[in-house]
Amino acid sequence: MRILLCCVFLLIITCCISVSSAEAPAGPAQGMPPLPEDNLNWYDKYEAALREAGAEEKQVTLPGGRVINYGEVRNSHPALLLIHGQMSIWEDYALVLPELSKKWHIYAVDVYGHGDSTHDESLYYIDTNGDDLIRFIDQVIGEPTVVAGHSNGALTAAYIAANGGAHVAGAILEDPPVFSTQGENWENSFSYLDTFKPLHEYDESDKSECWESWYFRHCYWGQAYMKDMMPMIADYAQQYHDSHPGEPVKIAFLPNSLWYVFQYAMQYDFAYGEHFYDLSWNHGLKHEEILSAIRVPCVFIHAKESVDQNGVFNCASSREQAERAVSCIGDNCSLVETDTSDHVIHTVHMDQYIEAVNSLHP
Question: Which residues are within 8 A (CB) of 330 and not within 5 positions of it... i.e. 6 or more apart?
Fold first, then answer.
């Protein structure tokens, strides 16, 4: 979907982009066809949803001083633990919280290296963070919990489902990068080429420009589809960064689906991404072994497989990989597939996501 949007906007950008050498403009390029009104202020509806749900931000300190930051929507319903994906924070679930809270007492965590949870590279492994989230379930929630994770957070949810014991009642695996993030066709995947390779190269650079500018200058979709335009967009990002210190970079003339993650990148430890670049995040564990150990009811939500003209998979896992994962789990797991390749299913396909979560309601 990201690549499709880029192709759609290529002509618009070519005709309309205008970058001042003195200061990055705060609004859309003059003469540009209108984007949705919330394109620049998209996060407002997230904050409104958090208020509607009554979410409260809290922290718990585990033995050893490790801090887990989380949002809670309190009520008398069964417990649901939400685990976000790479370069995100717990508030990424905001839009589904009001509806989910009608049936669930919600705990949404920042994983280590993200948001306001502990930033410590020694913790950036599936089992290390997973074991501490099991402690979180035991010590903070203290009752049977359905655990739902997105992307690599879904792999963490799978680990918790396999190892969490009696307090884990079920698992929702939202588009996990099964098998790919343990090396299977990894360097030919969109995630590697568009995120982890640029992250690694930026971390190795002299950091003379901000991450957002570097990303646009080196991202896969830009180099594959808009190579001539990317230096201009990168310069715009740098100028916005310089003109708005301490604020997330916003690109007015692009749909926010292409840059919304900049909202969360300011609270992200790039060392976390290094563990995906070199595949060490798995800590020697095999996805097949984790999945095969799950005994609780499980729903695997898979974004539709998509392969671009260069043979690069624009999805977290192929249909074949998803089916293998479900086969490892066995008869207690059902496979649900969306009709698009959008990875953030809980935002793009909210109704389908909520239905899947509620299917595990006791």
Answer: 292, 294
Give the single-character DSSP code of 75: S
Superfamily of domain 43-182+282-358: Alpha/Beta hydrolase fold, catalytic domain (3.40.50.1820)
CA distances from 332 to 156, 243, 328, 355 (A): 18, 53, 10, 17
**Alpha carbons 138 and 114: distance in angstroms, whole number:** 22
pTM (predicted TM-score): 0.90
Mind listing the pLDDT tens digit of every residue in the chain (362 residues)? Answer: 444 444 434 433 443 443 333 343 444 344 444 555 678 888 999 999 999 999 999 999 998 899 999 999 999 999 999 999 999 999 999 999 999 999 999 999 999 999 999 999 999 999 999 999 999 999 999 999 999 999 999 999 999 999 999 999 999 999 999 999 999 999 999 999 999 999 999 999 999 999 999 999 999 999 988 899 999 999 999 999 999 999 999 998 888 888 888 999 999 999 999 999 999 999 999 999 999 999 999 999 999 998 888 888 888 889 999 999 999 999 999 999 999 999 999 999 999 999 999 999 99
